[in-house]
Amino acid sequence: MQVSTDLSSALGDIARTSDEAQTAIIAVDASETDYHFPEINAYDAAVVSGQPVVLEASANDADFDLIQFNWRQLAGPTITTTDADSTTISFVVPEVASATKLIFELTAADSQDVISSIVTLTVPAVETKPDEDLHRHSGSFSWLAFLFGSLYRFD
């Protein structure tokens, strides 16, 4: 907190007489306080279906207060995570048929304040290939039998 104590500039051109009370306006900058809010650094990412993921929280508190964390899933296929009240959570990314977003809210709380940030993980669709090999090779034996059958002469 900053307080302006330069009374000569605060008083300005106020006329001074011995009978009058002097009034001074003291400026207080309320934007600066002794308390510092914790800050969260959260980043979005792309992840791959079926792969393990670890999300790690990073928070700074200039007052060195103890920070408590909480992870909460807001959207996407429900996943099972490890300890949601720690700095890290881990899980295996689910397989999805279409592009999907896993959205989490990370909350950090110190002794005086609670802040939150959103983390979005983009999961691309798993590409499935049709059983081309099964269809492409089915009937090969019958074509082979037809070919040999036409070459063989019946007498």
Task: Please provide a written account of the structure.
This protein has 155 residues and is α+β, with helices and mostly antiparallel strands. The longest helix has 12 residues, at 140-151. The protein starts with a strand and ends with a helix. The strands form 4 sheets. Strands 4-10-9-7 form a 4-stranded mixed sheet, with no helix packed on it. The protein has a two-stranded antiparallel ribbon with strand order 1-2. A two-stranded antiparallel ribbon has the order 3-6. The chain has a domain at 36-123: Sandwich (Immunoglobulin-like), CATH 2.60.40.10. The chain contains 3 helices and 10 strands. 15% of the residues lie in helices and 31% in strands. The protein has helices at 7-11, 132-137, 140-151, and strands at 2-3, 28-29, 39-40, 45-46, 52-56, 59-60, 68-75, 88-92, 100-109, 114-123.
The biggest beta sheet is recorded as: 4 strands, mixed
Distance from first to last alpha carbon: 113 Å
What structural class results from the helix and strand content?
A: alpha+beta
**H/I helix tally:** 3
**What is the CATH H-level superfamily of the domain at 36-123?**
Immunoglobulins
Q: Report the β-strand fraction as a percent range.
A: 25-35%
What name does CATH use for the topology of the domain at 36-123? Answer: Immunoglobulin-like
Poorly predicted runs of 5 or more residues: 1-33
Question: Keyphrases for this structure?
Answer:
single chain; 155 residues; alpha+beta; Immunoglobulin-like; four-stranded mixed beta sheet; two-stranded antiparallel sheet; 31% strand; elongated; disordered N terminus
